[in-house]
Amino acid sequence: MVITPPAPPVHPVYVIGGGPGGLAVAAALRARGVRAVVLEKSDAVGASWRAHYDRLRLHTTRRLSALPGLRMPRSFGRWVARADVVRYLETYAEKHELELVTGVEVHRIERAGGDWILHATGGRRLTGRAVVVATGYNHTPHVPEWPGLDAYGDRLLHARAYRAPGPYEGKDVLVVGAGNTGAEIAADLADGGAARVRLAVRTVPHIVRRTTLGWPAQRSGILVRRLPAALVDRLGALLARFATPDLSAHGLPRPEKGLATRQREGAIPVQDVGLIDAVRAGKVEIVAAVEAFEDGEVVLADGSRIAPDAVIAATGYRRALEPLLGHLDVLDGRGLPVTHGARSPREAPGLYFTGFTNPISGMFRELALDAERIARRIARSAPKPSR
Q1: For 186, which of 106, 203, 237, 315 is 20 to 30 Å away at the CA?
Q2: 115-120 and 124-128 as β-strands: parallel, antiparallel, unpaired?
Q3: Helix, strand, coil shares, percent, the chain, to 5
Q4: Is residue 222 within a helix (H) or strand (E), and if so which, with residue range?
Q5: Residue 52: predicted pLDDT
Q6: Interior CA angle at 133 toward 114 and 30, to 5°?
Q7: What is the 3 state secondary structure string of 97-153?
Q8: How far, in Å, CA of 272 to CA of 262, rounded?
Q9: What pTM did the predictor assign?
């Protein structure tokens, strides 16, 4: 009698992060017969979207923001609200019957032969044939190390903690940072009854209309994303003169560097959802960048001092990937993965990343495309589980 040895266990693919990127990859893998387990450190999917400010809407259109296998309902409207994004992600996980484990944080990933070992909450040691890191572009709030900040007290909070303008009614508020978050929070405060709103700007952003004659900025981003940066810079400058007023008299001159050049440096344009009108009406005042905090005041780069009641730091996030996989030599000097999508680092086959770029063509759209590419690559190389 010939005894056939049992087949080695088929390890799952582990997806770290239960946001849109992680859920999309898991669904695309499941559709190809590959077992995927999503590990989410919070108690529900879409944790970062649950924490965003109430006013937030997707800056990309509903039709171009759906994840693989599920359209966004027409009832969400063209620009999907934060709460509807959360509902969509919950429905997405249920519809695709994703294997989701919440309350588990992965602390470190290590290579072990042809597999990956994940060290996680509670001393867990999980073995996966492949790992997809989808912990998000906006992971850990970042506040610059301004001199004197420690003594400033609790009058400063990061934009992650901002939800609505109600608590700031009748107050003097300084918003620091002129990216999409800072611009929108400043407009929200101006509309919501703050007595005075100032926006501290270090580098003047490109500001684009969300739509121009009904044409969404996202579609323009899709059309030009493969074009040479110099050409896109010129096209962006022409469009700006047609669609966006010159705010130089209000402290926001047109940027010196082109739109595509800035995007490649990591700064995407600000989509206007009220900032232009607020600045022109004097409801939001532009001031110089913050340099320090001293004697209860904010010291600005032009030497002036102001004493707002509150400071909201819309100063960005860090990816915070170093503790997880900094030892694998797969991060660049900015802490970003050296590859993304269906490409694994040469030194780490079977390790994939999604959601660590900030494209002008739309984050959700790129997450959906990445999910299909990653799933195809893994499905081609992974044995199917026995039935």
Answers
A1: 237
A2: antiparallel
A3: 35, 25, 40
A4: helix 217-224
A5: 93
A6: 80
A7: CCEEEECCCEEEEEEECCEEEEEEHHHEEEEECEEEECCCCCCEECCCCCCCHHHHH
A8: 17
A9: 0.91
Amino acid sitting at position 349: P
3-state DSSP of 324-373: HHHHHCCECCCCCECCCECCCCCCCCCEEECCCCCCCCCHHHHHHHHHHH
* The predicted structure's pLDDT at residue 386: 46
| Phi/psi-derived region of residue 329, left when phi > 0, alpha when psi is between -120 and 50, beta in every other case | left
Amino acid of residue 30: R
Other beta carbons less than 10 A from residue 169's beta carbon: 11
| DSSP at 179 | S
Beta pairing class for 317-318 and 124-128: unpaired
pLDDT at 221: 85
Q: Which residue's entry shows tokens 């995927």?
A: 36
326 vs 337: CA distance, rounded Å: 10
- Ranges under pLDDT 50 in the chain: 1-2, 4-7, 385-387
Position 239 scores a pLDDT of: 84
- Residue 15: which of 103, 101, 110 has the closest Cα? 101
Angle between helices 363-381 and 20-31 (to 10 degrees): 40
Token digits of residue 194: 């703050």
Element (H, E) at 85: helix 82-95
Cα three-residue angle 34-134-220, rounded to 5 degrees: 105
Residues 6+ apart with CB under 8 A from 87: none
Residues 6+ apart with CB under 8 A from 170: 193, 194, 195
pLDDT digits (tens, 9 = 90+) for 275-323: 999 999 999 999 999 999 999 999 999 999 999 999 999 999 999 999 9
Q: Which pLDDT belongs to residue 198?
A: 98
Query: What DSSP string runs through 255-316?
Result: PSS-HHHHHHTT-PPEEESSHHHHHHTTSEEEEEPEEEEETTEEEETTS-EE--SEEEE---
